[in-house]
């Protein structure tokens, strides 16, 4: 049997016996029949999820559908009620708010809680990756929202995560900063290749960034859409808009058709969209 373990870009193979056929690497994130209940409320209901090594997955869902609950379970912040969950040890999370300690300078926030050699150099290297080496000694209160979020990203990077969990990390940023953060996150992902789970409300963000977009509904993954369009992606591309419209429909958002585009003759009945039909759908 051949087994692989991935450690940030370096794949180590261990051959236990001589077999010619290559084995597929085991997905680092595997949830089977995962349930999470809060009292009598079942939020995640026998959910199955797999995220492959180096895969960028976005998770959409209506408000209250359980996205953060799932992310917190993957982060090890909350216990699951039942089922099985496999996640890499090396994982890190970035949330909507940067959660920096105000009494620690930027670089100390980056290595907070880590017992490593040369913490300052390590922090500086991570800050450099997010373009903030010059702010290593800054107090959090003096950072802009985007800078604070980049420090939070550096704090995640310094942990060399195999799984990077992002819970709406761009939601509180202005539109321009958000675009820059999208570029930054893609470039860091390309360089380090962690598996990523990005929770977002923003359908465009999901389709722009991810390899696969999942929709969470009634405690389960109701749609799983592969996005094969090459990056950088354009939101103007017809295929992008097609997937965007489908995702919005799955999320219960009705798009108004412009009056000029309304057909004069009665339209054919709209196709019934069954979420599971989207499995392996790709643009
Ligand atoms: N610690 C908790 N105790 C009780 N109920 C909780 C707890 N955490 C979350 N919930 C409930 O679980 C449900 C899902 O919450 P969650 O935050 O995961 O949803 P979400 O999809 O991330 O929502 P949003 O998009 O609004 O952030 C909600 O009904 C919420 O009230």
UniProtKB/TrEMBL annotation:
Q: Which residues form the ABC transporter domain?
A: 29-243
Give the Gene Ontology MF terms in alphabetical order.
Answer: ATP binding; ATP hydrolysis activity
Top-level taxon of origin: Bacteria
Q: Keyword set for this entry? A: ATP-binding, Cell membrane, Membrane, Nucleotide-binding, Translocase, Transport
Keyword Transport part of the UniProt annotation: yes
What family name appears in the similarity comment?
A: Belongs to the ABC transporter superfamily.
UniProt-recorded name of the protein: ATP-binding cassette domain-containing protein
The taxonomy runs: Bacteria, Pseudomonadati, Pseudomonadota, Betaproteobacteria, Burkholderiales
